Structure formats: structure tokens, C-alpha cells
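job 3f2a | input accepted
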Amino acid sequence: MTDTISVGQSAPDFTLKDQFGQETSLAELRAEKSVLLVFYPFAFSGICTGELCSVRDDLTRFQNERVQTVAISCDPMFTLKAWADHEGYDFPLLSDFWPHGQIAQRYGVFNEDAGMAIRGTFLIATDGTVQWSLVNGPGEARDLASFEAALT
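job 3f2a | predicted structure (152 res):
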């Protein structure tokens, strides 16, 4: 794993496909509002499902006129589509599948040995700088309440 990007640094730009196959770029997302990037290991896994269901269940807190939330994993687009349909996620799930984990690597949250992103969360301002971050290790769930201060 490389060093995680820090608060105050420029966030690496990217373009990834969402669960519908549409290309989504960080530059486009942050053109009008801040972006909360939520990296997670795997679709359909217990902790990841619990975290993203918590976001879904309180979506106006995480996605509103000030912030857009996107979740990113190394899963293929079709897996993300099936998971989003199954769980009712109404926010973008982005596929960092190929080149495998390239964006997670650029943010310093890719576990090379396991071939997955770890739980990295980054709030990106409209000017492209990292305003806030939180990184949790494998098997360690995020405290979603900690997002509240960053999002207000």
C-alpha cells in the first residue's frame, strides 16, 4: 500500500464507470458540490453492505445540495449493478475494476495482497483539495457519525 493522500493535498482525478456503465469523473462531480468518496472492499460483503445501507437510509445527510456521495470498489460494473438493485442504492457505485484498483492505489487505499480497496473515505472540495479523510483497516467498520462534522 502506498501513502494515503492527506488533507490539503490535491485529490487525484479519475473517470470510472458507475453501476449503469456511465462514465463518471471526479472533475464533473466536484464542479458544483463537494464529493464524498467512500472506498470499500467488496459488494455483498457484511460490513460493506451495512455501511452503504446506513448511507442509503440517511442519504440526505450524505448527499444533498452541498455534497455528492460516490462509493468505489474494485468490483466489476455488473456486480455493482446487481448489488445496487438488491439493496436499493440511489447513489453512484463506481467500478475500479480495471486496471484493477488503480484509483484506490492513487488514493493510497489499495491492499495489493488482497486485491481490494480498504475503507478509505475522502471529502473532496470543489477546488479539488482533500478537506477531510478517514481510513479504516480491513474488518474495521467506519463510524458514520464521524462524517457528520466533515459534512456540515
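job 3f2a | The domain at 15-151 is CATH 3.40.30.10 (Glutaredoxin).
job 3f2a | closed
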